[in-house]
């Protein structure tokens, strides 16, 4: 579940004799480097100009893949599971993949809803959907506001804060663990929150594998506790579903739900706050300006979507896509950020933030299950609005150009968002 950092600069395409080179094209582009980290949109434009809607790329260690850049092409791939499926065991590159490959947490097959297909995926996704549908969105907003108030209380008196760690990451994590039926606070829950952060977004010195093992152990205990003592929560509803998930299925699907809710939502919150604090179009009415907050949230999904690229889909058989010959077992990386800014859908170069037809929650049967996007919007919107209401004069503590994007080709998020404001006396 760890979100890997970008590969080191010395990683290069292997020589033609290397097994990993099989299937790679000579003009393939390595998905790495500062260009991706800070200005990925420029690189997407370059790839689109040189290769069209489908670009040959190499992943960590020189492993070949296809990056799907076009809006129409991403929509097609995600809508045709009979051609491009989710079970990664189809991959024709497995003989070249080392056990410690950095992207293994994303492509290594697990018996989870993420890799299930056909009726099995419908069964597993149906359980999650029904468990999420039972969440009262007004209660969720109240819960998130309560969490936000508590987090803000922790730094409001100081007049300064680093919002990425102290607010944007913490709020959705605490909200989702509470929805899953864990205590609102306490050492055990705090430990889980920390381990989930490490397993999803490891910093230097962290051990994401050990953290993930602890997360699994905690989920196993949660499933056991909820079988014995069910409650009004996601876990209990999944356990009582007629589909009859096993404990193993419950654990991996719960981790999927929590991971999908935390990292993307945290970056959505932070990227939106960055937009509100740096763009003059929002400067006059961000405080309490609910319409502006809604516009900013949607614009971020178009222009700085938290999930830039998603790995992936695997070709079921030889086929053609965007003028390219895709071989059976080839890996396709979904370029969600590139698709959202495809000039074919925005011919005037103007992104319309009022339009919500972005692909930030993917598309097709394996898209983020309903009503998860609506719940994520409640969490993100409540977080941003509460912060602006409590700290109406909040400003960046650094120049906008000093903000650094996290070195990842997968997630779009800042390493830190330092702000200052008038201290609030509690």
From TrEMBL:
GO MF terms, alphabetically ordered: heme binding; iron ion binding; monooxygenase activity; oxidoreductase activity, acting on paired donors, with incorporation or reduction of molecular oxygen
Q: Gene3D superfamilies, alphabetically?
A: Cytochrome P450
Q: Which domain of life is it from?
A: Bacteria
Identification of the protein by name: Cytochrome P450
Could you say which protein family the record assigns here? Belongs to the cytochrome P450 family.
Which parts of the sequence are annotated with region: Disordered? 1-21
Q: Which InterPro entries match?
A: Cyt_P450_B, Cyt_P450_sf
């Amino acid at each position: 579940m760890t979100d890997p950092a970008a590969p080191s600069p010395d990683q290069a395409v292997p020589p033609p004799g290397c097994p990993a080179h099989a299937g790679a094209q000579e003009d393939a582009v390595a998905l790495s480097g500062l260009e991706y980290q800070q200005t990925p949109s420029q690189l997407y434009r370059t790839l689109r100009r040189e290769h069209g809607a489908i670009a040959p790329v190499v992943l960590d260690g020189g492993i070949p893949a296809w990056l799907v850049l076009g809006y129409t092409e991403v929509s097609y791939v995600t809508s045709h599971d009979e051609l491009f499926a989710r079970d990664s065991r189809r991959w024709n590159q497995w003989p070249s993949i080392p056990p410690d490959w950095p992207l293994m947490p994303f492509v290594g097959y697990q018996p989870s809803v993420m890799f299930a297909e056909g009726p099995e995926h419908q069964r597993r996704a149906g359980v999650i959907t029904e468990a999420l549908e039972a969440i009262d969105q007004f209660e969720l907003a109240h819960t998130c506001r309560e969490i936000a108030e508590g987090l803000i209380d922790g730094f409001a008196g100081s007049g300064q804060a680093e919002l990425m760690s102290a607010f944007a990451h913490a709020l959705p994590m605490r909200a989702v663990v509470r929805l899953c039926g864990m205590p609102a606070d306490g050492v055990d829950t705090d430990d889980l929150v920390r381990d989930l952060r490490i397993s999803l977004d490891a910093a230097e010195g962290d051990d994401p594998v050990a953290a993930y093992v602890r997360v699994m152990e905690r989920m196993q205990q949660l499933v056991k506790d909820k079988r014995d003592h069910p409650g009004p929560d996601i876990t209990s509803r999944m356990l009582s579903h007629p589909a009859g998930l096993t404990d193993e299925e419950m654990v991996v699907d719960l981790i999927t739900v929590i991971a999908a809710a935390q990292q993307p939502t945290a970056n959505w919150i932070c990227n939106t706050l960055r937009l509100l604090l740096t763009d003059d179009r929002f400067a006059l009415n961000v405080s309490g300006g609910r319409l502006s907050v809604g516009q900013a949230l949607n614009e971020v999904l178009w222009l700085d979507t938290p999930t830039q690229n998603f790995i992936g889909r695997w070709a079921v058989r030889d086929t053609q896509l965007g003028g390219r010959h895709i071989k059976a077992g080839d890996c396709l990386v979904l370029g969600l950020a590139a698709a959202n800014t495809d000039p074919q859908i925005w011919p005037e170069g103007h992104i319309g933030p009022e339009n919500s037809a972005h692909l930030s929650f993917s598309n097709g049967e394996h898209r983020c299950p309903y009503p998860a996007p609506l719940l994520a919007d409640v969490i993100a919107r409540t977080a941003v609005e509460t912060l602006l209401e409590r700290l109406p004069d909040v400003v960046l503590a650094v120049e906008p150009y000093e903000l650094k994007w996290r070195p990842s080709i997968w997630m779009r998020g800042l390493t830190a968002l330092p702000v200052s404001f008038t201290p609030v006396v509690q």
